[in-house]
């Protein structure tokens, strides 16, 4: 017996190590006009939820919330720029661990729909494209371009190494993979590109996915009137936002050999929100009725979003329209979704759950316990430093003209553009190429703001003899949707002019990517002040970094109240939780409890405007996402 014990024990350990969804290998196919799971026709009741918008410690809780709403599937985009942070440098760890996200979904009994793009949209910075693609010679994103397709192939192949083994064909939970994303919209926006070239590009992305080893059914998703440009042979066409069942079936039949299955890959129970604009609201009862309409008419669907989460750090994207050259998205991606930003049950959740429970044969579990909340009445900010002093510690980049973020090899954050004037000059300052928000200083004193959202590119200025002009420029998120996605450089991308005279010569640029927390105690050669009223008064109007510590006896989710502040970003224990801006409608920022700890915690706030000195900040238990203030 002893000679068999070793092999038997090894076999036992191998079996025990198999993931839950791997215990039995399932099948999924599109056959006879149906989605077929283990040989039986099924409806897909899916909800979109993005791994990168939720701390990984909360993934399982959110999957349980999705199950409790009655859904059987979760869908997620993959964000290329989240993983390839610079050319050839990949990161799939922590909150970026997509494979773990998919495994956990399977363990919770959910099928998975993967949407790898390579274009995502999703109100995400640059639609998921890495910013550095813009530095690749001869590159144009999202078209039949050799330089671009070389990088998409590398991305898709690297992604396949992470998750291809998690397809249902290999015993995992991934049942379908999307090829490209809403490409029909782009075709309609880029009529300067021949339709044949659009179709060639779309087909090549599908081929790259297949060659990388994605062998589950592929699909496309577009508005139903955009299938001509977006559909591609061999991929199931699905219709986004289509509420008319008759029209849905007609257009899918037209592009899918006269048969289904029929699916709405983006069914909108809420909508996206921009800074300085009202937060859209979508009626819960209408969504519940439409859900029932889909179920009773054999239409599969994916709620976009079932749970939005948060655009932490610099991940939020932007749109634009005829009145605004940029419309930056909020830090919160609550989306008025059925599951709130912090993972709470909402009336919309209950309405949808009640409908689904009436029509499904499987058991719908109760919602898991809500994650605990805490409130911190006051966090003292005891240290403060001038950002100009922080910038002065680094070696500037000099150029005859202002350089873009990309030319400076910087993706996100801020750049301080500085120029010394030996002779006085006054008149109209013009920065037509501002991308996106600038605070203007003369000799360290704030004299104005320019703002791409309001198309405000000019102001009057007076620069005395022997003075310094400083322009602190913020990237507020690259455009993620529409034809302008191909013009996404940041910083100052055109000449700076005064009285229509181009200002050249000896521009100094100080890079402030804010990729790491500017911990004041760690900064060498920087004057750090005690945050007293006298010192605060000296720094009024200057961009500053405030720092404080606070002690906790218990942890939990909370929301930091920034309504009385100006504009900036916040770090909690070294994590950038996102942007705030006084204009609203978002006035609080979500702090996940897993990023807090018992005992000492640190907060750092970069306040760009600093119109009023601050000595403390508080948190609240209820978010404020719909309070719009005048700028």
UniProtKB/TrEMBL annotation:
Catalytic activity as recorded in UniProt: Hydrolysis of terminal non-reducing beta-D-galactose residues in beta-D-galactosides
GO biological process terms held by the UniProt record: carbohydrate metabolic process
Protein name: Beta-galactosidase
Family recorded in the similarity comment: Belongs to the glycosyl hydrolase 35 family.
Domain Beta-galactosidase galactose-binding: 543-601
GO molecular function: beta-galactosidase activity
Species: Macellibacteroides fermentans
Active site: 182 (proton donor), 266 (nucleophile)
Pfam (any one): Glyco_hydro_35
Keywords: Glycosidase, Hydrolase, Signal
EC number: 3.2.1.23
Gene3D superfamilies per UniProt: Galactose-binding domain-like (2.60.120.260), Glycosidases (3.20.20.80)
């Amino acid at each position: 017996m002893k000679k068999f014990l070793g092999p038997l024990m090894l076999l036992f350990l191998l079996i025990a190590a198999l993931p839950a969804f791997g215990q039995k290998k399932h099948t999924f196919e599109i056959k006879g006009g149906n989605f077929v799971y283990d040989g039986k026709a099924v409806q897909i009741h899916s909800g979109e939820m993005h791994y990168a918008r939720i701390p990984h410690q909360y993934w399982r809780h959110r999957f349980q919330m999705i199950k409790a709403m009655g859904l059987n599937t979760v869908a997620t985009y993959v964000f290329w720029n989240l993983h390839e942070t610079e050319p050839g440098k990949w990161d799939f760890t922590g909150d970026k661990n997509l494979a773990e996200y998919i495994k956990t979904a399977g363990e919770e009994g959910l099928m998975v729909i993967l949407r790898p793009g390579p274009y995502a949209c999703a109100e995400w910075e640059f639609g998921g494209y890495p910013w550095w693609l813009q530095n690749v010679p001869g590159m144009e994103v999202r078209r039949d371009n050799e330089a671009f397709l070389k990088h998409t192939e590398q991305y898709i192949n690297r992604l396949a190494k992470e998750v291809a083994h998690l397809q249902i064909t290999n015993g995992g939970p991934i049942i379908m993979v999307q090829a490209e994303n809403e490409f029909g919209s782009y075709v309609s926006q880029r009529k300067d590109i021949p339709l044949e070239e659009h179709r060639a590009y779309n087909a090549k992305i599908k081929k790259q996915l297949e060659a990388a080893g994605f062998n589950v059914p592929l699909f496309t998703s577009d508005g139903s009137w955009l299938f001509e440009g977006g559909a591609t042979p061999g991929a199931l066409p699905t219709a986004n936002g289509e509420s008319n069942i008759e029209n849905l079936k007609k257009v899918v039949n037209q592009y899918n050999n006269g048969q289904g299955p029929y699916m709405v890959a983006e069914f909108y129970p809420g909508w996206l929100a921009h800074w300085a604009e009202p937060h859209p609201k979508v009626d819960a009862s209408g969504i519940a009725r439409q859900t029932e309409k889909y179920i009773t008419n054999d239409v599969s669907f994916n709620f976009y979003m079932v749970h939005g989460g948060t655009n932490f750090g610099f991940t939020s994207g932007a749109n634009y329209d005829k009145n605004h050259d940029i419309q930056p998205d909020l830090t919160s991606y609550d989306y008025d979704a059925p599951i709130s930003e912090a993972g709470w049950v909402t009336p919309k959740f209950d309405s949808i759950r009640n409908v689904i429970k009436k029509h499904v044969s499987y058991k719908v579990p109760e919602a898991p316990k809500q994650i605990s909340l805490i409130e911190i009445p006051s966090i003292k900010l005891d240290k403060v430093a001038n950002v100009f002093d922080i910038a002065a510690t680094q070696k500037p980049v000099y150029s005859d003209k202002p350089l873009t973020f990309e030319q400076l090899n910087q993706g996100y954050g801020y750049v301080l553009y500085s120029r010394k004037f030996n002779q006085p000059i006054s008149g109209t300052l013009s920065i037509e190429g501002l991308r996106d928000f600038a605070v203007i200083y003369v000799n360290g004193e704030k004299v104005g703001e320019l703002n791409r959202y309001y198309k405000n590119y000019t102001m009057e200025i007076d620069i005395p003899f022997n003075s310094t002009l400083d322009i602190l420029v913020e990237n507020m998120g690259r455009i993620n949707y529409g034809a302008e996605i191909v013009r996404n450089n940041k910083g100052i991308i055109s000449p700076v002019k005064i009285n229509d005279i181009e200002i050249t010569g000896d521009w100094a640029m100080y890079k402030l990517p804010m990729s790491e927390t500017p911990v004041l105690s760690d900064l060498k050669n920087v004057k750090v002040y005690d945050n007293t009223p006298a010192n605060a008064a000296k720094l009024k109007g200057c961009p500053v970094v405030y720092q404080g510590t606070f002690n906790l006896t218990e942890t939990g989710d909370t929301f930091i109240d920034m309504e009385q502040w100006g504009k900036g970003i916040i770090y909690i224990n070294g994590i950038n939780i996102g942007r705030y801006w006084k204009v609203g409608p978002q006035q609080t920022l979500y702090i996940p409890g897993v990023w807090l700890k018992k005992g000492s915690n640190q907060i750092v706030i970069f306040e760009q405007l600093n119109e009023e000195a601050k000595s403390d900040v508080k948190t609240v238990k209820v978010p404020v996402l719909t309070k719009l203030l005048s700028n």
